[in-house]
From TrEMBL:
PROSITE patterns: AA_TRANSFER_CLASS_3. It comes from Microbacterium ginsengiterrae. Its cofactor is pyridoxal 5'-phosphate. Belongs to the class-III pyridoxal-phosphate-dependent aminotransferase family. This is Diaminobutyrate--2-oxoglutarate transaminase.
Amino acid sequence: MSLSAIADTEIFESSESRVRSYSRSWPVVFDRAVGSTVFDESGRGYLDFFAGAGALNYGHNNPILKDVLIRYLAEDRIVHSLDMFTTARREFLQTFSDAILTPRDLDYRVVFPGPGGANAVEAALKLARKVTGRESVINFTNAFHGMTLGALSVTGNSLKRSGAGVPLVHATPMPYDDYFNQDYSDFFYLERLLSDSGSGLNLPAAVIVETVQGEGGINAARADWLRGLADLCRRHGILLIVDDVQMGCGRTGGFFSFEEAGIVPDMVCLSKSISGSGLPMALTLVRPELDIWEPGEHNGTFRGIAPAFMTAADAIRTYWQDDALEASTIAKGARVEGRFNALVSSHDDAGLVAKGRGLARGLQFRDGETAEAVCRAAFERGLLMETSGPSGEVMKILPALTITDEELDRGLDIIDASIADVLAA
């Protein structure tokens, strides 16, 4: 009997919109989750290499953060606060400044734009246009920045863009790193357009970039490419926005994914794992001189979720007072890279390509059907992971940074077996 036949899913089928997606790949009803394991209602455990699409860098129901949350709620502390001053907001801001920004010599004002990553992106785009007085934004091929109209306008995926229902304007896509397989020098096209008065490209307000494109297929930009992009923006007076919604909070090693390149963006978008506990929270970090908002000019009802501030502060205190987690993430990422490279070699006729940085990793197949079949075979063996890329051709893993070596190896063994079965079929 199939897993979908066992699960009671009638209410979802009859009541919920067809727009749902993950439940189509994992047709069971989940009930509990601890660390890197998710349990369905029958009690079967699934090893989680998905981590809430990167929202659970410290695992499900992390006991340290769970304790903070339970105590906060039990004491009747304030939960909803808009942008009012609260002790929870103060504790987060002070901790974030002391443990994250100051040690990295970063000077940013913190905007709380709303509960999700798209809110952080919308705030950055809006402020960049306000500061510069320009409309155009440069984005990149295969980028993903969110599902609201502004964020969609700088997103590359045609399926997601088609859902907008209106023209998506004031954004110009440019080739991401290695889009042309290094046949051309970095930024030759963008530099020429910016320098040529006859190109028809208006001087942009900003460039928005992911250092590793998660939804776009685990495309990792080289540090030199990111430094070149930062230099180009500086020379032309263009603001640089780094979307660190999925790759921030330690996913690639350092707290910010741009640290390896040694660049300092004008704005940074954070969400997903910033709360540490899976609670909704987002930040847009802006250089102080760019903070020209009028009071109330950008706001949102859920920009002050105090329990998220508390778990975010404690996640930082727990995991970012030293470099232990960063070193562990880099080491585990290298472990995955080695296993993926071995898979590429052992299936040399299958056209596999290993991709990624840190614990954002992927294996690219020749087509989306094969990648999906591998993920489906892994699910049957008790492993959760998803596909990404323009045609879903990349098998993507985002395990919790706190995953144990045993869990990591067990999941990689499942991937090995799943690929072998699918390619042998």
